[in-house]
Design a protein that fits this description.
Length: about 425
């Protein structure tokens, strides 16, 4: 203003040249510093591992967990999830010990650094003493500087958003949020990231090329074969309907029994993947204001440790059992038919109609190819020989007066004389 002579009466005098700042402006205008430092990712596995804790969930999982603790290797971006019952130093230290033992044994490397925030569940005397004895360096961020802890914060956001989508798409109860989180972590390890565009994190972590042919939609209908060793019936159903909730790597599937709440482990399964959900032009508004999937809202104990003195622990999943037929099995789901009010002008009400299926969405089904059995191949070969014999005019194939086989049960004499055995030979 003074240089361009925009106003009158403004005279600026030069100071003594000493560096100074307005203290009142600092008190009133102090802004956060940007996190613009150049970050160089690690190239060696277990050289730096990011750790963060999410929770609490408003609904306890089927195993009793309320917190999710995720370890992310900086070199491979490979995630490992643990579920805790409480937010306490005992639970987090137990998870750190288990992660260290498993990763060092599998990778044949040593865990060197852990980067975490300044939560009391991490920075406590027991955790610091254990890391000091194990030679692990703890690198903590500043208080409430969440942007400086970007890797685990973005990881938690991605996993939790995946949990919401999986529960909404499957329609399973919110108590299965831990299984949905485990599935989200499992699939995230099979998706390439910008840090490793040519490989998936699981391949970088294990050094082996990964196979994703076993992946199926979370919560899809699954039919598991009942092993003959545990099937008490000889003529009853040999398959039971379940819901897919997770994986035991590539070896088997983790299934959920909606009737009993038990977890099943099976490999002999048939999938009915259904169709995906799409938005419609005129969707009806929601009438219920309570969102049953809102299990992630903050609670008063979100940033504080449990005050009841309960020592937390790493939650263990229930041991899976083999598929078993239930006495109350429903072979086919009975859907309620739509009703319409009867009118006096129609003595016979019209049959209710079911809305037609959408034709623009193709059903998702299993991609496994069916292979004919040996009996089917032999039957097809026999039918081909018979057709060829008829075309060649052979007597045994064209003469209808000479049947090829005749069953005794189809003859009247068999019913009149049940104790008499009659043998009929094949005429050729």
């Amino acid at each position: 203003m003074a240089q361009k002579d925009l106003v009158d009466g403004l005279h600026i005098t030069d100071g003594d040249g000493a560096p100074w700042m307005c203290e009142d402006c600092i008190y009133g205008k102090h802004a956060s510093r940007p996190y613009d430092e150049n970050y160089t990712p690690e190239t060696e596995l277990l050289a730096l591992v990011h750790v963060d804790l999410w929770g609490p969930a408003q609904v306890r999982s089927t195993g009793g967990a309320r917190y999710l603790m995720v370890f992310t290797d900086d070199a491979s971006s490979f995630h490992k999830a643990y579920f805790l019952s409480e937010k306490s130093g005992d639970a987090t230290l137990q998870a750190i010990k288990e992660y260290q033992a498993e990763s060092e044994c599998q990778m044949d490397k040593k865990l060197k650094k852990l980067r975490l925030d300044m939560g009391k569940e991490f920075l406590n005397r027991a955790c610091e003493e254990y890391c000091r004895e194990a030679g692990i360096i703890l690198k903590s961020t500043a208080l409430y500087a969440h942007a400086s802890n970007g890797v685990p914060e973005r990881t938690n956001r991605t996993i939790v958003e995946g949990v919401r989508c999986l529960l909404c798409d499957s329609g399973l109860p919110p108590s299965l949020w831990a299984d949905a989180a485990a599935t989200s972590v499992y699939t995230r390890n099979l998706i390439p990231l910008s840090r490793h565009p040519g490989k998936v994190p699981a391949e970088v972590w294990t050094g082996k090329r990964q196979d994703v042919s076993h992946l199926r939609p979370f919560g899809c209908t699954t039919y598991a074969k009942v092993p003959k060793e545990v099937n008490p019936s000889k003529i009853g159903p040999i398959s039971v309907k379940y819901s897919l909730i997770s994986y035991y790597d590539c070896e088997a599937y983790k299934l959920f029994d909606c009737h009993t709440g038990k977890v099943i482990k099976s490999w002999d399964v048939i999938f009915e993947e259904g169709t995906g959900h799409r938005t419609l032009p005129a969707a009806p508004p929601l009438t219920d204001s309570n969102d049953i999937y809102d299990i992630f809202g903050p609670t008063p104990t979100d940033d504080t440790e449990a005050d009841d003195g309960t020592p937390g622990k790493v939650v263990r999943e229930a041991l899976p059992v083999a598929p078993w037929t239930r006495p109350t099995d429903i072979l086919h789901d009975v859907l309620p038919m739509p009703t319409r009010p009867a009118t006096p002008a129609e003595p016979h009400p019209a049959t209710p109609t079911v809305p037609p299926a959408r034709l623009d969405v193709a059903p998702r089904r299993s991609t496994r190819t069916t292979r004919p059995t040996t009996a089917i191949l032999e039957s097809r070969e026999s039918e081909g020989r018979l057709t060829q014999a008829k075309s060649d005019g052979l007597d045994w194939a064209t003469d209808s007066s000479k049947p090829w086989t005749m069953l005794a049960a189809d003859l009247p004499s068999f019913h009149r004389q049940p104790c008499k055995l009659e043998i009929y030979m094949i005429q050729c």
